[in-house]
Amino acid sequence: MKHQKNFLLILVTTLALFGCHMLRAQTVDIVPRPQEILIGEGSFMVDEQVQIAASAKSRETAVILQNYIAEITGYQVDIVEATGLGSNIIGFELDEELAEEAYRLVITDKGVLILAASAAGWFYGVQSLVQLFPDRTDVPERVSTFRIPALTINDAPRFSWRAFMLDEGRFFKGAEQVKLLLDEMAHLKMNVFHWHLVDDQGWRIEIKKYPLLTEIGSKRKSSQVGPLKWESPIQSAEPHEGFYTQEQIKEIVAYAQKRHITVVPEIEMPGHSSAAIAAYPWLGTAKKEIEVPIRFGVSEDVYDVSDPKVIEFLTDVLDEVIELFPSEVIHIGGDEVKYTHWNSSISVQEYMQENGLVTPAELQVFFTNGISQYLQRKDRRMMGWNEIMGHQLHDYQDAAKTKSDQKLAESTVVHFWKGDLELATQAAESGFEIVNSIHSSTYLDYSYTSIPLSKAYAFDPVPENLDPRYNDNIIGTGCQMWGEWIPTDGQMHFLAFPRIAAYAEVGWTEVENKDFDAFKTALPRLQQRWSRKGIYYAPDSVVEGESTASE
């Protein structure tokens, strides 16, 4: 440890002698943009003599860096124990004074040091470091040496929740595409993969106690298509199916963990439940047989939350989900619940009277709180779209039916997506933690005409009128890749890239350090990476809304 401290002192002293100054926004191209960059003079040369110094705790990250260097040079530099550090070393050091995901990257002509309090911090330091390396497309033939500029980066994320959501309830994408997305999320320092696995049009996760969920619920005989979208009468006449086995889920969760990404599953309830009801009709309020819907939009039948057998089913499902996903947070959806069947059900009305519930909205909050209590007993927290607070957000809802005196469980994470931002402000000021994913600024299925790259980049998850005392209750944001009209991988790539990079910077970089011009200057480097990985991103002529080709 004494040698490590001496090496750090040499690095910092050398950097000070170089006469550091604040870097202009466009000088170093790193996405998301670090909070502070100081540059010195000179550079550090990476060659075969370089060694990576790592402890047992940092070795996994050291191997990642070793592989990055090998991609460019064709050789593997040695990884040595974290003792006897000197020149020509890229070292990892523990600094417990740094925040959980923070890092400090110091580069001089003598060596490189990455300091962090956790493996996540080291990992993010490496992601910044490798963006200073030449891209593989810049060196079609491997090079034996390359140089990186002398600088110091002090960096930490603005928000703890930096998410990308993939909806596979509508169109199943498969493990290869999920892993590709996880790789790009990790490179952009995003840390939550919100996995929408259940919806009306498909159930995509194996539940061993209820095999019909995938035998029946994962398949539909056709899909709505056409330029009119929601109003289109056209069908594909092509079956669609797919689901993940529990072993595949475990593999993907482990893959994400190695990249410091938490996988948060979304299991919709009490609405968006048609695929489950098609598998087990007794789950529905109407108790009638239905097919997995072939049209998109909001189906009417919902879980019969007055039936103890249905509650048992949902807790059984959650038990298996909890075993698969170590995430503290479990997302239950809760959005777009049509109350038609509850209003016409005698048993539901009797249940409401027994529990002193006046409106369907009160019934939903009452049910949701029961699920929250169940998850709390399992040491988990519930998350849901902001309808779970009982707000009237949709034209098909009667305002009188959405009035509620029920108070949502305080431990709930509210995922704000629709309605006046004042609702998010009120929730934050009431003590709820909020993830702000307002649809008009974060939905990736919207065209570039609706959300151009500049609008995505300019989004601020903290509502403008929120009292600063409650800013910490806005824990982050997410960008949502809803899948109704995105049947192919290429369409998903086109709409997600490059906007995912803009949202990554929204989640990571403090507002005062953001610079859209600098972001655009850095974008070509990412585009080179995406091209090499077979990602069909939207061209520059489209991303500022100059074309409606994505609609």
UniProtKB/TrEMBL annotation:
Q: Which reaction does it catalyse?
A: Hydrolysis of terminal non-reducing N-acetyl-D-hexosamine residues in N-acetyl-beta-D-hexosaminides
Q: Which family does it belong to?
A: Belongs to the glycosyl hydrolase 20 family.
The residues the entry assigns to the signal sequence are: 1-25
Please report the organism this UniProt entry assigns to the protein: Neolewinella aquimaris
Which InterPro entries does this one have?
Beta_hexosaminidase_sua/sub (IPR025705), GH (IPR017853), Glyco_hydro_20_cat (IPR015883), Hex-like_dom2 (IPR029018), HEX_bac_N (IPR015882)
What does the UniProt keyword field contain?
Answer: Glycosidase, Hydrolase, Signal
**How would you classify this enzyme at the top EC level?**
hydrolase
Q: What are the top taxonomic ranks of the organism? A: Bacteria, Pseudomonadati, Bacteroidota, Saprospiria, Saprospirales
**An annotated Gene Ontology molecular function:** beta-N-acetylhexosaminidase activity
Query: So where's the catalytic machinery, residue-wise?
Result: E336 (proton donor)
Q: Which protein are we looking at?
A: beta-N-acetylhexosaminidase
Q: Which Pfam families match?
A: Glyco_hydro_20, Glyco_hydro_20b
Gene3D superfamilies for this protein: Chitobiase/beta-hexosaminidase domain 2-like, Glycosidases
Query: Where would I find the Glycoside hydrolase family 20 catalytic domain in this sequence?
Result: 159-510
- From its record, what is one biological process in GO terms? carbohydrate metabolic process
EC number(s): the record gives: 3.2.1.52
Limits of the Beta-hexosaminidase bacterial type N-terminal domain = 29-156
